[in-house]
Automatic annotation (TrEMBL):
Species of the source: Gordonia terrae
Taxonomy, superkingdom: Bacteria
Domain Dihydrodipicolinate reductase N-terminal: from-to ranges: 26-119
InterPro entries, alphabetized: DapB_N (IPR000846), NAD(P)-bd_dom_sf (IPR036291)
GO molecular function: 4-hydroxy-tetrahydrodipicolinate reductase
Gene Ontology biological-process annotations: lysine biosynthetic process via diaminopimelate
Protein name: Dihydrodipicolinate reductase N-terminal domain-containing protein
Keywords assigned: NADP, Oxidoreductase
């Protein structure tokens, strides 16, 4: 049992106290990619959070200090391990911030974490477990019950931008005829360490190589596709009350090619190679197109498909309804007032906005009864994360 967890069915308790002051939430950062590093930087600025360990994957980092080996700065007193068993067996941990690469076998890791009594907030999935069937849900719920722990899929998208903000906005109309959502992500902001992941999604490939890869491994069969389809189903289920079987989906992939050689922050792209790629997910209910989701990944301003580019990440939601229709656009960039403390921080703003909802979910997840937590409630930029616990429970 974790230090802030109660037994199933209990009312959520206030934040634990030490000498009259709220006890820091003890967390582990699982993953050292773009999001993991951004989360670690932000967590180290939060006195109400204590980072007790980081799980990395590079063997050379095992046993090092995360400040030096992950953030490239001074020691921060947080050890790095590359052995998952070190995390499974660790005691007195309130929450795991699970920021792994989206893969089918990540569920095994999450189940073991839950069974070991650790709450989990994942950016890599579990936003709508019901989409994957009763057996999948039962396995997760059994793990939560066994470890008296909670699981929450969270993040910018999926979760905050579509399942919460866009869905909540449908209160502006009476009936929804079609809902579309598009994410435009400038992947050049990730940095060189993200090149491998971006090449796997098709950036930097020639059209021939990309077409061959899609023929051999159809995107419909990929776990990454299911990551977004489950998000689409969550919203359409709320609006139309449909089961996964009542929603049929199709996925289209298209791309733009570089007209000249490009040297971006993350990778080099030669003329004739893919500089921007779009995955379009279409969902039909009773033969009618009800939901569309576009995922745009592009490399730098010159590859941006938008007429006007503002910031590093843009989300556009369009709701066609009766009696009203509307469009919302969200552009995210760096702080309007850069502070001295961030002058040596090259972390992309796009990474920070992805991890903020995850960090702000820690009070909710650690104080909830055991089980799966769905994305139906809001957090906000609280000056003290402890203040979110009584509001969200």
């Amino acid at each position: 049992m974790t230090t802030t967890q109660q037994t199933p069915g209990e009312t959520a308790a206030a934040a634990p106290q030490i000498d009259g002051s709220p006890k820091p939430y003890r967390v582990v950062v699982w993953g050292t990619g773009n999001l993991g590093r951004a989360a670690l930087r932000e967590l180290m600025r939060r006195p109400e959070i204590e980072v007790v360990a980081v799980l990395g994957h590079n063997p050379s980092r095992h046993g090092t200090d995360a400040g030096e080996s992950i953030l490239g700065g001074a020691k921060i007193g947080v050890p790095v391990t590359t052995d998952k068993d070190d995390i499974y067996t660790m005691r007195d941990v309130d929450c795991i911030l699970h920021m792994a690469t989206v893969t089918p076998d990540m569920t095994d890791d999450v189940v073991r974490l839950l069974e070991s009594g650790k709450n989990v907030i994942s950016s890599a999935g579990f936003h709508n477990p019901a989409y994957h069937g009763e057996e999948f849900v039962a396995r997760l719920e059994k793990a939560c019950t066994s470890g008296n722990s909670s699981l929450c899929g969270n993040g910018l998208h999926p979760n905050l931008m579509f399942e919460r903000l866009t869905l909540a906005s449908t209160a502006l109309t009476s009936r929804v005829e079609h809902i579309s959502f598009a994410e435009y992500a400038d992947c050049s902001a990730i940095g060189p360490e993200g090149e491998g992941i971006l090449r796997r999604v098709g950036l930097g490939a020639t059209p021939e190589v990309l077409q061959a890869a899609l023929a051999e491994n159809p995107i419909e069969d990929s776990w990454l596709a299911q990551y977004y389809v489950e998000s689409l189903h969550f919203v359409l289920n709320k609006i139309y009350g449909i089961s996964p079987a009542e929603m049929t989906t199709s996925i289209d992939v298209d791309w733009d090619l570089a007209t000249a050689d490009m040297d971006t922050n993350v990778m080099k792209v030669h003329k004739g190679e893919v500089m921007a790629i779009r995955n379009t997910y279409k969902a039909h209910v009773d033969g009618v197109l009800r939901g569309t989701m576009d995922q745009y990944y592009y490399l730098g301003e010159q590859a941006c498909p938008l007429d006007e580019r503002v910031g590093q990440t843009t989300h556009i939601a369009i709701v066609q309804g009766d009696p009203t229709s509307y469009q919302m656009r969200f552009d995210a960039g760096g702080s309007l007032r850069p502070s001295v403390e961030r002058e040596d921080d090259s972390t992309a703003a796009a990474a920070y906005i992805c991890v903020m909802p995850i960090i702000q979910a820690v009070p909710k997840v650690t104080s909830s009864p055991a089980g799966i937590i769905m994305p139906e409630e809001f957090t906000y930029a609280a000056s003290d994360l402890h203040s979110l616990a009584p509001i969200l429970n």
